[in-house]
Specification:
about 375 residues, alpha/beta, about 15% strand
Length: about 375
């Protein structure tokens, strides 16, 4: 029994091309599982020069992609019926990312049947240019749901980073032990010093006040919208919306490829930002930085964060000149090679090193760590 189960498992792993060598007793459900997996993973053989229904041994076999077999919606239903949730999530992810099965995000019924998650969001953004109006409307609602969940996760950490710090110039009548001002208390009550018995009578106890910071700073997020930066684009849009909700913080959001688009008017609505971006295209960082220079009114109260893989498509001289001018004017510069949950970037290290030499801090960061860095800079 154990050998039969192992043989079946190998058949599902290797697919129909292993039929001549591995022939376990295939129950009806196991046959359906094999066909469902072959619908997707059979593309591996096509990619290696084995087309359609041609088998490795030259014979014809079942499990082709012909019309009488599975369609994408039927295949998706099969996968969900036959496999555990963890498995069908992996299979769907492979379908989207590895095999480009775009019908998953361009057919409305199929799209609405998918579980909203960040991987689905990335694929919708990449394929939204191919969507019909009705599919695009459905996609917008799904994107709004995913963004709301992502915002909820990030907002608490970001706002905590910017929460009030101890104000040692104002006092609070509320007696909170961690806010106790012992120096101020002694100083205020020195008049009550009892010389005879060496005691200080406390008429009034002082406590520091805690207040929310008022940050008259402008934060400019300059985001590379090339296809490789999709995770960072998503997190930048969400983070911009959260930062815009903080008191006395002015947020500007600029996205670029070989053109520059100012999305600052949508900064409080990450969904509109994401629906406005166009992933892909070339990269002209110098042009984007020159545009951002126009947004700076008070350099010493401005932070400019360039979110990019620094793979400059234009001659880099223009980019270097802009960074040098910004630094000399007093702008605080940060270069983020990644701004997402993984913070594991691929970037042009040569250009990154040059930007560092010009005064830009280069790193990769999660949104939480970036918010903590912003809070430290804005005091």
């Amino acid at each position: 029994m154990r050998n039969e189960a192992e043989s079946l498992r190998w058949r599902l792993i290797l697919g129909r091309y292993a039929k001549n060598r591995i022939q376990p007793a295939m129950a009806r459900e196991a046959t359906r599982m094999e066909k469902a997996l072959d619908f997707l993973y059979g593309r591996e053989y096509q990619g290696r020069g084995i087309r359609g229904r041609d088998r490795v041994d030259g014979a014809k076999g079942p499990g082709s992609l012909d019309g009488s077999q599975l369609s994408v919606p039927k295949w998706l239903n099969e996968v969900r019926r036959l496999f555990p949730k963890e498995t069908h999530r992996v299979v769907e992810k492979h379908a989207l990312e590895r095999y480009g099965l775009s019908e998953l995000v361009t057919d409305r019924k199929t799209l609405e049947s998918l579980e909203p998650n960040p991987d689905l969001l990335k694929m919708m953004l990449q394929f939204k240019g191919r969507m019909r109006a009705d599919v695009l409307n459905a996609a917008r609602q799904i994107i709004r749901q995913i963004v709301a969940e992502l915002t909820e996760k990030l907002a608490r950490d970001v706002r905590q980073s910017f929460s009030g710090k101890l104000n040692r110039y104002r006092h609070n009548p509320l007696p909170v032990s961690q806010n106790f001002d012992w120096k101020g208390t002694i100083r205020h009550n020195l008049k009550n010093w009892q010389k005879d018995d060496g005691r200080l009578v406390l008429e009034q106890v002082k406590f520091f006040s805690r207040q929310r910071r008022r940050l008259p700073w402008r934060i400019v997020l300059c985001v590379d919208q090339s296809g490789s930066m999709v995770d960072s684009v998503i997190h930048s849009a969400v983070l911009a919306g959260i930062l815009a909700g903080l008191p006395a913080v002015d947020v500007k959001l600029v996205v670029f490829d070989t053109t520059v688009v100012d999305l600052s008017q949508y900064v409080q609505d990450p969904v509109e930002v994401l629906m406005s971006i166009q992933l892909g295209g070339g990269t002209d960082i110098g042009q984007a930085l020159e545009y951002c220079e126009q947004l700076i009114e008070f350099p010493h109260r401005t932070i400019l964060a360039l979110i990019s893989d620094f793979c400059e498509g234009a001659p880099p001289v223009r980019m270097y000149s802009a960074v040098k001018r910004l630094k000399e004017s007093g702008v605080t510069l940060m270069g983020l090679a990644a701004l997402d949950s993984e913070a594991a970037p691929f970037f042009d290290e040569r250009i990154g090193a040059k930007l560092t030499a010009l005064g830009m801090d280069i790193t990769a960061s999660t949104p939480k760590k970036f918010a903590e860095w912003l809070a430290l800079k804005i005091c």
